[in-house]
Amino acid sequence: MINFENVTKIYQNGTLALTNINLKINKGDFTFFIGQSGSGKSTLIKLILREEEATEGIVSVNGFNVSTMLRKEIPFFRRSIGVVFQDFRLLPGKTVYENVAFAMQVVEALPKEIRRRVPTVLGLVGLSNKAKAYPNQLSGGEQQRVALARALVNNPVLLVADEPTGNLDPETSWGIMNLLAEVNQMGTTVVVATHEKNIVDTMKKRVIALSKGEIIRDQEKGQYEDEDTNHQIYN
Fold it and tell me: Which CATH superfamily does the domain covering 1-80+156-223 fall into?
């Protein structure tokens, strides 16, 4: 599903963001990327989404060689990926229904398919009764669930969530994470970049910890901290 081979990323300003990264995430996995600000986890996400290009090495995602992909191929590649951001990124002038439907319109889905699929996904995230509401009429947690519905509506094989609970209270955060776990159980590969120690420790999924652009730990059923060395990744 996701494969990094000897990947290094150096930004134009000279910042070395990632150094010789090798990792493989299989179809159906649930993986956390953790690490303090500047550790490289956001760059990993950007490389997966082809928002950035690797300076060296090969990045492949869902059968696509992202490293050699032409710019015109990127929109088609991204159709197979759902993305959830910390800041929701909803369209303020559109209703909940319209925000989710827009993601299907972009990929030129048929109107009848949109009418069938959007209510189904809104039901999945518990927002059937908010279809006609606008983003400014929703709580932060509800807005994030709209963003999740939008990410899921095209049946992605991969869901990438970059700090999805960063602006939410603990109870609401757990609601979002439980939804991501349900989506994963239905077969979607899930990758989450997070600072939330309690969530990582409780869910016991695979943990890839980064520091200064390098992977320092890759652990199945991992914790936020490495118990063997009592090394705290983020304070």
Answer: P-loop containing nucleotide triphosphate hydrolases (3.40.50.300)
